[in-house]
Input
Amino acid sequence: MFKKLIKEFKDFALKGNVIDLAVGVIIGGAFGKVVTAVIDIFLQPLLDSLPKMEGGGTGFAGSLLSFLGVLVEFILTALVLFLIIKAVNGAKKLNKKPEAPAAPTTRDCPFCCSSVSIKATRCPHCTSVLPEYKP
Output
């Protein structure tokens, strides 16, 4: 019974989906650090330079300003994340080589203009003998 449990766990843990998820979580954590660094280095000084309420703001006004600060930070974080992902996707497109066009599989019959297989020696529509195909 214990061996069966270990075998089931091994099958579960070594499935591609679980490993992909683990890699995604690790990369996500590292990416979160990159985003945090960008915000701390570039955006936080901009936020700190904005005018502040005297006395830090108390009551409803202080809560509203605190909420707005969190909202602005979220929007800036999302913007930074968007720009980084856009740059990565653009770099991926630069490295892609164009695919070669697929070889044709059909040709037109010179007698009836019907589409026939390249390998055909006789047209199935007009029964004419087809000349040898030369690309």
Summary: Strands lie at 106-108, 115-117. The chain is about 60% helix and 5% strand. The chain has a mean pLDDT of 77. The radius of gyration is 32 Å.
